[in-house]
Amino acid sequence: MVMDEKLVIALPKGRILDEAMPLVRAAGIEPEAEFDNPKTRALRFSTNHPHIDIIRVRSFDVATFVAFGAAHLGIAGNDVLMEFDYPEIYAPLDLGIGGCRLSVAEPVDLAEHDDPRRWSHVRIATKYPEVTRRFFAERGVQAECVKLNGAMELAPSLGLCTRIVDLVSTGSTLKANGLKEVEIIAQVTSRLIVNRAALKTRPVEMTGWIDAFRSACEAQNAAA
Question: Which pLDDT value is given to residue 156?
């Protein structure tokens, strides 16, 4: 990385972006007008800082862009950080947004008489196979994971897997699909993440933005 290289910030698409943008703006970064155009197909945007660009990518891809140095800063949920466990990523700040939980769920009729403490082997549909295997391995349970990127709630009713591991916010999607949350693997919030190499080669700049986001979080918390 060179000092005149543009600073790239990776932001996640979807619900978290709506919660993240007030913090991004409070930290002093304003994207170009096209960023707020709901019909745009653009993925990279300039900002009020000539040397800073924003990219908008899938939430799972934010961590990969930052880990490999394609982006220098990003916002990612700790569910993503747990799944990939990239050593190249430093997560100095919990932004306190995007709150939900990573949970195990199963059909309601099964949950009525099932005891997760007695499981020895489980087959689970999830987009978090690494986190799921580690969680159950710590209890001596063998977890056979079927990787899905979406529509997890369909897996039990279609006979793919009896149980799922997925993000849960209100639980309404589980309920609508006849499922019940039976265990919580982790509480999830979004973090400011930093590429470690960039932090070493551009310490003043990177530390300055970490401090700016920290101040934005403190101001938001004080106003809440």
Answer: 96
pTM metric for this prediction: 0.92
Q: Is the pLDDT of residue 224 over 80?
A: no
Closest CA to 199 of 90, 50, 87: 90
Q: Is the pLDDT of residue 93 over 80?
A: yes
Give me the sign of the Cα torsion angle 198, 201, 205, 211. Answer: positive
Distance between CA atoms of 202 and 207, rounded to whole angstroms? Answer: 8
Number of domains making up the chain: 2
Residues 182 and 126 in one domain: yes
| Secondary element (H or E) of residue 205 | helix 203-223
Is the Cβ–Cβ distance between 186 and 101 less than 8 Å? Answer: yes
Q: Listing from the earlier edge strand, what are the strands of the sheet with 7-12? A: 44-46, 52-57, 7-12, 73-77, 190-195, 89-94
Tell me the backbone φ, ψ of residue 37, rounded to 5 degrees: -80, 110
pLDDT digits (tens, 9 = 90+) for 35-71: 999 999 999 999 999 999 999 999 999 999 999 999 9
The residue whose two tokens read 């590429």 is: 195
Phi, psi values for residue 134, rounded to 5°: -65, -45
**Domain span at residue 72?**
7-98+189-223
For tokens 């004080």, name the residue.
Answer: 222
